[in-house]
Amino acid sequence: MWFYCEQRHIIKTNKNKGFQGILIYRGCTNI
Asked: From which domain of life does this come (predicted)?
């Protein structure tokens, strides 16, 4: 059984660390 998850990449800005990328999986459906 395969699971498909919609990938949404959200980039947040941090003054100290610069750019931080957060990967969020939403809407998982089994194919």
From this structure: Eukaryota
Task: Dig out the tokens for 23 from the structure.
Answer: 């990967």
Q: What is the percentage of the chain residues whose pLDDT exceeds 70?
A: 0
For the whole model, what pTM was predicted?
Answer: 0.21
Residue labelled with tokens 């980039």:
11
Tokens of 13: 């800005």
CB 27 within 8 A of CB 6: yes
31, 5 contact by CB (below 8 A): no
